[in-house]
Design brief:
- The chain has about 180 residues and is of the alpha/beta class.
- Helices cover about 30% and strands about 25% of the residues.
- It is built from five helices and nine strands.
- Strands 2-1-5-9-8 form a five-stranded mixed beta sheet, sandwiched between helices.
- Helix 1 links the parallel strand 1 and strand 2.
- Bound molecules: zinc ion (2 copies).
Length: about 180
């Protein structure tokens, strides 16, 4: 069995912070096809320099730019620290559209005293969302689709981790080997 012959999207998880490192083990096991986590390692970046001290948050777009490239794999950086974009108070995550690199923050997905199951479930849904963007998928109007845009953590619970038929087709197209 080789990576070249198995369909799907190879995912490399990078983690920053103890919560992310712990959760990444379960995330690797829970991420639905076509995503397949093949590597997990700590993100070797000094994020302190990217921290906006006043906001206590990290600029998600700057973090994205600094992520290493992972040839042949889709990169998802899972971080404990809260993220923002200059135009938005906070974001759960951000991705390079079709560029294969994504970031996802655990900071707002679930309250600290929430059960581990709730955090994992929301993380899986939003990981599919960001990885979908990394593969070129845009936001979807279907409320239950993971590509639907959610602004509040509670709204993630209305979504599932399985893409709607249109987004599934878009994923398959994005992953299809180029015709010879
Ligand atoms: Zn989105
Ligand atoms: Zn959809």
């Amino acid at each position: 069995m080789t990576a070249a012959s198995s369909p799907g999207a190879r995912v490399k998880l990078l983690t920053h912070g103890p919560r992310s490192a712990a959760l990444s083990v379960e995330l690797a096991g829970a991420l639905p096809p076509p995503f397949r986590v093949e590597e997990r390692e700590p993100l070797e970046l000094a994020l302190d320099a990217l921290l906006d001290r006043q906001r206590g948050q990290l600029d998600a777009s700057r973090l994205l730019e600094l992520l290493p490239r992972a040839p042949g794999a889709h990169l998802l950086a899972l971080v404990d620290v809260d993220l923002f974009l200059p135009v938005l108070t906070y974001v759960f995550g951000a991705s390079e559209l079709g560029g294969g690199r994504s970031v996802l923050s655990l900071a707002r997905l679930a309250p600290a005293d929430a059960g581990a199951e709730l955090l994992l479930r929301r993380t899986v849904v939003e990981a599919v969302h960001e990885l979908g963007h990394g593969l070129g998928l845009v936001h979807c109007a279907v409320p239950a689709c993971p590509m639907h845009r959610t602004l509040w953590p509670e709204a993630i619970d209305l979504k599932g981790s399985a893409p709607c038929p249109a987004c599934r087709r878009a994923l398959e197209d994005a992953l299809a080997p180029a015709a010879i």
